[in-house]
Design brief:
Number of helices: 2
Largest sheet: 2 strands, antiparallel
Helix content: 40-55%
Structural class: mainly alpha
Low-confidence stretches: 108-132
Oligomer: single chain
InterPro entries: TMA17
Strand order of the largest sheet: 1-2
Distance between the termini: 52 Å
Shape: flat
Mean pLDDT: 77
Length: about 130
């Protein structure tokens, strides 16, 4: 907020700058940029899924609270990234309805893993609905 006072003109008031929330409107309208964004987010999803698998394997050998916390954080980030990819794909469908790139995300796992502690870790891959 900024207060404005111009005595010579008899003007006084406040300016409040509206903050725009980030949503699908912050996506570019360029199809190539959207595809690059989808590819970037999909690669990040794959890396996070791999990281969660490796952390889960390490937890099977020895319980580590930091690893548990990292997995839980990764699960949240995975959820956000999958939502972002879904918005990107929806925007691609909007711009190019006949585009084959908008049919499905390029990352393999579409489901979000259950929360840590919901079931034993043995034999379960976190952050992915498919096994490696």
């Amino acid at each position: 907020m900024v207060e404005v006072y111009i005595p010579e003109k008899g003007i006084a008031g406040r300016l409040d700058l509206a903050r725009r929330q980030a949503d699908e409107d912050d996506l570019p309208d360029d199809l190539l940029l959207l595809r690059e964004l989808e590819d970037h987010e999909s690669r990040a999803i794959s890396h996070l899924e791999r990281s969660n698998r490796e952390l889960a394997e390490a937890l099977e050998a020895d319980d580590d609270p930091d690893f548990r916390e990292a997995i839980a954080e990764n699960v949240q980030v995975l959820r956000q990234k999958r939502e972002r990819v879904a918005k990107v794909l929806a925007k691609i469908r909007e711009i190019a309805p006949n585009s084959t790139a908008a049919e499905s995300p390029s990352y393999a796992g579409a489901a979000v893993a259950p929360a840590i502690g919901a079931a034993p870790l043995a034999g379960r891959v976190l952050g992915s609905s498919t096994s490696p």
